[in-house]
Each structure stands twice: as structure tokens, then as C-alpha cells.
Amino acid sequence: MKIAVTGKGGSGKSTISGALARQLARRGLEVVAVDADPNPNLGIALGVPREQVEVMRPILNSLLESGHTHNDPQPAAEDLLARYGVDAPDGVRLVATGKIERPSDACLCCGSHNTTRQFFGDLPADDRVVLADLEAGLNDLIWAHPGADDVVLAVTEGSTKSVEIARRACRLAAEMGVTRIVLVANRTVDDAEVHRLFDEMDIPIFIVPEDPAIEASDHLGVAALDTDPKSPAMVAVAALSDLLADGMVRS
Amino acid sequence: MTPDLTARDDAILEMMARETAVMDDLVLRAQDPLGWLAVRRQARSFRQHLEPALAVASAARVGAEIAAYDASLARCYERSGAELGEYDPGVVATERGHLGLRVALIGKGGVGKTVLASTLARVLARRGRTVFAADLDTNPGLAISLGLGTGDFALPSAAVEENAGSNYGWRLAAGVTAVEAVRRYATITADGVHYLGLGKIGSADKIDAKQSVVALTQILLRFGDPSWDVIADLEAGPTTPFEGYHAFADTVLVVVGPSWQSALTARRLLPMVGDRRTVIVANRFRDEADHPGLEADVRIPFDAAVAEAERHGSSPVDSCPDSPVIDAVGRLADHLLTTSQEVKV
Fold first, then answer.
1. Helix, strand, or coil here: B102?
2. What are phi and psi of B31, to 5 degrees?
3. What is the CA A70 to chain-centroid distance, rounded?
4. CA atoms of A60 and B53, how far apart (whole Å)
5. Residues A47/A89, Cβ–Cβ less than 8 Å
6. pLDDT tens digit string along B116-148?
7. Chain B residues with CB inside 8 Å of A215's CB?
8. In this complex, which of A8, A105, A171 lies closest to B109 when CB atoms are compared?
9. Between chains, do B272 and A103 touch, taking CB under 8 Å as contact?
10. β-pairing, A93-96 with A30-35?
11. CA–CA separation, A169 vs A175, rounded Å?
């Protein structure tokens, strides 16, 4: 199963991706978590220590540092995963595609998008979960290019802007042929207003409630799944992982 | 056209010709300290902008033309310094305060860049300043915050023309100057703020969204008029700073929220902005532990009323005008206006 997580910046993509990846791993699935953000920090939500997240070298940075140029053929995704992935809690394998660090990182900018596509497109996912936490906004969803068999989670919080971006993400995913699209309404409550916001979209809505535990863990840069695993948002993500693992998310 | 020139080389030559016209016009009209300050700032930002052009120019002839252009910009810069030296330093310092702002906002997604950009633009406009707010995000945002809703307010296709050598294959149409483009195509929003934005990604081919990128960054970079404040809201993260969308700015607001990840993002973004003044803005501020490893220059407090306004897509200027957030943005405006002496021009 491949899962692409998309949405506005700050909507909670990484928080949900990190907790979801670990919950799926706890259900016995092999999970590869792909941090596709050129400002990678998915490691935090996975429970990787902050110091390690700061120094982690993404695939493209590592390749360029070892003398690789954009004219060289890119190694296979499976090899890159073995070489540049790091182990996160619960057996999740974390890999970041590329980090833009300097104004001159020309190869990184195009290369990290291409590497995201390579990972989301080429990595076999029959017997494992490939979960890609995408860069904020819609551009990266187009690069990842999910297909009919993949899952797209459009994460939004309740603000007008965030909902509008999620709406466009769902439309884009449908245009790309994705049938398993779920709107994750984060930091909301299961009330009439939320349903009114999303009614016209005609796709399943999954509610992740507002949760002070997430704010507290974000403040410290740690994973809520470690500091407060019974908090409402973490319980909701566990339920989402059940839905996905059971293959209950259908078109 | 010499046959050995690539489309990219042609685009660079054309870019220099159009910038030269902007420079000549500013020099021609410079008759007071404000005018010479504008010349100085424009010469400096055009010179900064030349460096990436040098890296991609392939033909030797283009390299020579770039060097000649750089030398002429250096002469403009030196001349403006000499002209300013003829005036009383106190008068020059006062006029620096009147030189319009050139501000770009960057930061992690969700830290509040867009609400801050729109509020700052309106606070400045309410002080009687003329404000151009540029939306450099291919996702909806600034137009909503300025009260325009989710409709299409992108730079129209009449403002752009195809150009093989430009990124994404388009540039600002010939014969349209930057100031004209804003006057002609901007949507006038609350408090008279002029809004121009990138196209928004609506389909998987992205073309509509991307064809306005070069034109809008060119409008920003060539916007010589010293009397306008220019505020640009960039897309979240490092990609648009990497692509130089902030090239026009002499001041970059790095916005950080009360999360460790947003502080990490800010620390990563600081090396991206080059030799520009940076102002670290701690948004939704509660205490210094909000943003480890960073010293905030301006603090904007958390206010539930502003969060509520964001939920509904309304502006805090309208829905909670008495909020301490509005006061804090006013202080940010003061800070930007009174410390403009620190900005290198």
C-alpha cells in the first residue's frame, strides 16, 4: 500500500504521518516513511531524537556529497533505502529525499522532487507500506503522482485556507485517477460545521480532534505518540491505521 | 541573434536590457535624496540578481555583456553614493525613512506568514502608505486573507509572454513596466492595498500556475518606485527562497511559531536569504522557549480572537481590531520603518 499525505503547511501532515507510520508498523506491517519535504522534519513525529533529525542526511544530499552528479544514473530506490534510510521507533524505516540548505543547491531542488517520484512510484509496496509525507501545498502531490491503487490523505484543519487547499488536493488526486482519497479533518470536532465544510466533496472524512497534547509535543519537538499515546489525537490516528490496515478505505 | 546563443542566453540579454531601462529611468528622475536612494537600492539588488545569471550563461559573449552590465550598475551605485554625499546627512537619514519597504516573508507552513503579511500591508496602508502585496504562493492564501475569497486573481495572461529561456517558459510581456503592471492588473483590496498573485495550481499540468512566476518576480525586482511599500508572501519552506522569489527584498521576515520544528525551519532558512536584513518574528508568542536557538526581534502574542478570524478566513483588522496582535503588527511596522537605516542600500 502506498499512502501520500498532502495538505497546507501547518495542517498536521507530519504529525499524522509519523504517528500513522508507527501504528501501521505496530500492526506487523513493514513501513517505509518517506520525508519528501525539502525542509525535512518527519523524524520528529516518528520519535527520532531532535539531534539526529538535525544532522540526518537525505538521499540527494548524500549522493551529491559522494560525488554523484545530475548526469549520473540514479541508483534504484531499494538500494537508496538500504544505504540512506535510518531506523525509527517500532521498526519504521525513514528516508528523506533532499534538503535545500543553500541558495546554490540547484541539483537538490529538481532532484528531490524526482527522488520523491522515484520513491513513491518505483518502490515495491505489495508487502509493505510506503507512506510519503509531502511538501506543503499541491505541487509535491503532482510530483509524487499517486495512482488508482494508492491512498491519498488530504489533511486540513478548520481554517478557510486549509480547507480550500484540501479541496483542491482532493480534486487533483481524483484527476490523477486516485480512488482512495480520505479527507483528514485535523484539530476539529465531529460537528455539523465540519460536515457542512466538506459535504460537497463527497469523500470519506476522518476526524482527528483538537488536542493540547500535540501542541505540547510540537513545542518540545518530540513525538506525541511517545509523550502522550492515549491523547485524543493519537487515539484517532490509531483508529485511522486500523481502517487503512484492514483495507477498509475504498473508493 | 547570434546562432551560438542559447535561449537562456537570449533571456539573460533581454533581462539586462529591460533592467537597464529601469535603471536609466531612475537615474533620470533622481533629483533629491529619495531619488538617489532609490537608484542605490535598485543598483544593489540588480547586482545581487546577476550572480545566478552568470552561473547559467553559456556563451562567452554573454559573460562579457554581464560583466559590462555589472560595471555599469557599479557606476550607478557609486554615483548615487557621491550624489547623496552632497546632501546634509540628517536629510538623507530622514529620506531613508521615506524609502518604501521591500519586504519578503518566509517560514514553515502554518506559522502565520500570510495573516501577518496581509495585516502588515493593511496597517501600513492605514498609515497612508501605498502598498503592493504580492502573493508568491501557488496555493490559495493571501487573497483570502485580504478579503478576496477563493476566486482567481492571478496576474492575467495578457501580462505574460512565452520565452523559452525563462524558467517555466514565460516572462513579463514586452512593453509592460513593473509599476504599470501593478497599476493595470492589481486588484485593489481592503484599505487600498494592491494585490497581485501567482496563478494557483488547479490541475496536474501546473502550467496556469507556473506561467506567472517569472513575470511576478520580475515585477517585484524591477519595481523601482521609491514611494511604494512592497510586501511579498512566499510559499512555505525553502523552495521559493531557493528559487530567489525574495530577490527584490532588502528585508526578509523569518516567521516562527511556538513549535520546535518551526524554529528548526527558521534556522535552516536564514542561510538562504543572502546579504539582506533579516527580522525574526515570533508569532503566537507565549515565551522565549517557543523558538529555541533563535533571538526574536519582534514578538506577536497569541490571541484566540485572531485564531478564530483565521478559521473563518477573515482579517483580524476587521474582526478584532482591538487585539494585541494588531498593536504588535503596528510595532513591527514601526520597527521596519524606523530601522530602515540599517538596511544596506
1. strand
2. -130, 0
3. 26
4. 24
5. yes
6. 999 999 999 999 999 999 999 999 999 999 999
7. 258
8. A8
9. yes
10. parallel
11. 10
